[in-house]
Amino acid sequence: MSRFGVLYRAEHRAALFAHSAQVDVLEIVAEHFLDLTAEQRDELDVLRAHFDVTVHALATSIGSSDGVDGRYLARIAALVDYVRPLWWSDHLAMTHACGVELGAFAPLSRTEETVAIVARNVAAVRDAVPGRFALENPATAFLVPSDTLDAAAYLARIAAAADCELILDLENLHADAWNVGTDAGAVVAAIPAERVCEVHLAGGRRTRDGYVDAHDGPVPERTWALCRAFCRRCVPPLTLLEREAALPPLSNLLDELDAARAAAA
Ligand SMILES: [Fe+2]
């Protein structure tokens, strides 16, 4: 069964309910609901009543060699227990190191050492938070010189060693092709498709210095091409439009969702 959804933004709430038949799944950002206040619970109750939900977190820091933060995971566990999402996820990156908050997704070295760290941290995540867990490829600003694995092999090794699912963000991959020379087509061709529970689509923009994965524009043709290529291998269980900023009317996103459905047909 394949589903199609969008990143939830409160600005779209009324339009989403008006068009709920065209949206199967809402992705909610964990950090927007971590306090589980009465107001947040009310909002989650209404969303859950009309849509399936996934929870997307930002600060698990799955690549930190000093481990994952148990207090953060306890808050995620409470949210997951309340929402009962299809699965929850975070990024294959590092957001803290030795107690220092980095304020961004720091890229990890693509090495067997990182694979072992991530596998250990995913095991700790599983102990703390029940349910399915997936890791997403973030866009990377630079490659770490000590890399020994290419992008495709790295994702495959992570999924196998951690025995976890993957979110394939095709726009992040598109940005990596511009900025660090990733062979995006090779990743789409080689990623273990059976591990991919979700594909993300979004758009960014070119600047003089490269490509910004701002998720603030329509899905560009190169990202659509990656989507079609992946769909020729397999139809992902969930395809999600991840528009984060410069929100257009929901109808624009619904048109893109129809295009995603056509790519998967
Ligand atoms: Fe994404």
UniProtKB/TrEMBL annotation:
InterPro entries the UniProt entry points to: MbnB/TglH/ChrH (IPR007801)
Protein name: DUF692 domain-containing protein
Domain of life: Bacteria
UniProt cross-references to NCBIfam families, sorted A to Z: PRK05409.1
Pfam family membership, one: MbnB_TglH_ChrH
